[in-house]
Design goal:
alpha+beta
């Protein structure tokens, strides 16, 4: 004789159903946690990078009497640690540079010298296409 009474069939299936539901929920949560989320473009980050670079250009201009020829000149002069990453394009090479041209006369006219032309950076903007969520063009920042 069996000392343990048999449970009705519905009580034997219930733990299996609960375990199956728990497994489904665990898989769903794992999927949500492992998905890569691309954040929206960062207007505040772009403003901060531009403010940093514009300040560095002004500092360079004060030290040398003219702007830098390249953004790497700011790094070489230790005004910037590195050329910042454009948070919109995710590149250090897409910055749009506004330059002014200067002409200096060479003192040695006898040896074929003459006017030397230089283009100095006076302003920097994002080189990103498109616009921020408010409709303002990234290149206008």
């Amino acid at each position: 004789m069996d000392s343990h009474p048999r449970l009705p069939r519905r009580f034997r299936i219930a733990p299996l159903v609960v375990a199956l539901l728990a497994a489904i929920v665990a898989i769903a949560v794992a999927q949500m946690l492992t998905r890569t989320h691309t954040p929206p473009p960062d207007a505040a980050g772009l403003r901060a990078r531009l403010t940093e670079m514009r300040g560095a250009i002004a500092t360079y201009r004060t030290r040398h009497g003219h702007g830098p020829a390249t953004l790497n000149d700011l790094v070489a002069d230790k005004v910037l640690r590195e050329v910042p990453l454009d948070p919109i394009t995710k590149s250090r090479t897409t910055w749009r540079l506004v330059t002014e041209e200067s002409v200096s006369m060479s003192e040695d006219f006898g040896s074929g010298g003459g006017a030397e032309r230089h283009a100095w950076i006076i302003e920097v903007h994002s080189g990103a296409n498109g616009a921020d969520p408010d409709g303002r063009a990234w290149s206008s920042y």
